[in-house]
Amino acid sequence: MVTFVNDKIEDRYVLLSENDRVKKKIDWIIEQIKINPTFGEPIAKRLIPKYYKVNGISNAFWVSMSGDQRLIYSLTPISKTEINATIIEWFTNHKSYDKRFGY
pTM for this one? Predict the structure, then answer.
């Protein structure tokens, strides 16, 4: 199962045009996560932004969307056989990614 961290992020996704390259890439990443939840690169716990931690996120993965674009997601076990992947946010440029992660 793949969900969004909150309504704001989901609304941001829904508002993207079906022909938008970003939306197409997000859709592709979601399908890859459904196949293999650990598809992305894990982010070391010490590097997870405090902004995520205060919102209850204890693990995070990143996926390159293209060039300097990144999508961040987290995994939460639902049961012994089910995992929920939560899309936290995506960045359309490296500057905003760097800012979030404090680089």
Answer: 0.92
Query: Architecture of 2-101 per CATH?
Result: 2-Layer Sandwich (3.30)
Burial group, residue 29, by CB count within 10 angstroms (0-12, 13-18, 19+): buried
Strands (E), the chain: 2-4, 41-42, 61-66, 69-77, 83-91
Q: What is the distance between the alpha carbons of residues 40 and 53, in angstroms, rounded to a whole number?
A: 19
Are 43 and 70 in contact by the 8 Å Cβ rule? The answer is no
Length of the chain, in residues: 103
**Per-residue pLDDT tens over the stretch 26-42:** 999 999 999 999 999 99
Domain ranges, ordered by start, for the chain? 2-101
Pairing between strand 2-4 and 83-91? parallel
